[in-house]
Amino acid sequence: MGPMSPMTSPSAPLGPDGRLLFATRALRMFSYGFLSVVLVLYLAGLGFSEGHIGLLLTLTLVGDVLVSLWITLHADRLGRRRMLILGSALMLMAGVPFALSGDFTVLVLAATVGVISPSGNEVGPFLAIEQAALSQVLPEARRTGVFAWYHLAGAFATALGALAGGWTAQALQAAGLSPVASYRALVYAYAAMGLVLAVLFTGVSGAVEAPPSSVVAGRLGLHASSGVVFRLSALFSLDAFAGGFVIQSLVAYWFHRRFGVEPGLLGSIFFAANLLAGLSALYAVRLAAKIGLIRTMVFTHIPSNVLLILVPLMPNLPLAIGVLLLRFSISQMDVPTRQAYTMQAVAPDERSAAAGVTGIARTTGAAISPVLAGPMFALPALAGLPFFLAGGLKLLYDLLLYRSFKASDAGAPKSERAQVPEWHNRVVNPPTHPRRFPWPPARSLVPPFGPPPCWRPRSCPRPPRRRPPRWASSTSAPWATPAGPTSTTWAEGRWRPTSRARWPPASWRTCPRVPMRSGSSARWPREAPRSSSPPPSAT
Length: 539
Fold this sequence. Notes:
This protein is an all-alpha fold and 539 residues long. The protein has two domains: 15-209 and 223-416, MFS general substrate transporter like domains (Growth Hormone, Chain: A), CATH 1.20.1250; 418-457, no CATH class. It has helices spanning 15-45, 50-78, 80-100, 104-113, 126-137, 140-174, 179-201, 226-243, 248-259, 263-291, 293-310, 317-331, 334-344, 351-378, 385-405, 506-509; strands at 488-491, 494-497. Strands 1-2 form a two-stranded antiparallel sheet. The longest helix is centred in the N-terminal third of the chain and has 35 residues, at 140-174. The chain starts with 14 loop residues before the first helix and ends in a 30-residue tail after the last helix.
């Protein structure tokens, strides 16, 4: 094997494309952060009710789903750089109508066609394309760590944006502007940020583009990995549906209605929350190296969901802020591990499509819940119900994820995980139980040099061990066959027949098998020929 190229070396730097993608991620999340703190307050200042606000937020996320679906599925074919520039233009198209118009219909159209984030989290096509681009220039060993720093850069930018948005709005109000006018200035800044991102994305080189592939992709841009991607998408959509009840804009509105918190203090609260969330991503890297990606996702997510349920139960503002910050300190440890696991489970030419499908599934789930949470926040008696629903559904997601994918976890014991990445097998996904015996040979595990490994179902009996030669004594035959479906018994230094059973047993020869690729032969290990003479050492 030749020397590694600088792009694939485990210690290779990010390069200019990686640094540029980190910078655009930071600027985009900064704009998401300062808008999410004041967006619901701005809509309420325009005279919309809580029900209309929830409907508008839902339609905003639905529009992001449709636009992102088309962009991410065509990014590998039309060019990732072009699609990133198009997404930046959609940010500009959403921000300008929001700032200029107060008509509900105009805002719905702008939110549906454009890209706007009511939660402060990533929306639109950017995350899926940037993950695929970073995976293109990084080796697998560095992927989880780089994704952690990638998430950390976004979390820090979101925190700074929330702090800047809250205190900027309060400073403008202190200078004499009305609350609506101060919030509108931040909407204009959001539109301007879309223009800046479009200019920056023109500097991305062709090294981030998808490699050519001879495999015909399916309707969603997937071929071999469609099964695992659809299963992950279903679980991620459940998690996002739960998180949609407590998006950052609605939580900021809840603090404002429950405790009368001003915009400046709201910005400080979510600055600290996003800062802690970003730092937790770094801890996830070291933890994932010890216990695996899936276990890191589940074991850190469960306590954070319990803390989320406790937030509305706090009697005063300091305790509510403390529990919320404690929850954010561990709530985002699943983000880099989730991204790394998705990129690891699919083929290289499916990464953009896989990240797009899973991201769109999350956005779809998050788009449904705000319209249900809006009326709940309007009633003081039901204001805490969204927190309970979000925490309970997220706990259900954690249990289902662990049950479905614990066996394929990269950090699990070898006896509990599949031996081959799922995208290697073009027929069936590897089962979650270990192989009974090493057959076919190990060389067939590496496509395209042989078929996928042969797996025996648990219902098949274990094949008996090879019989020792006739000359062997009982002391020199530690491999002697234990009690089982054999035709002879080792006794008094030789084999004595015990039954007329055929060798090998019929249940072993007719054991059902998982179908392998066409052209492969169904070979089974045979009994080694008996030796009629002792070895030289025995004479």
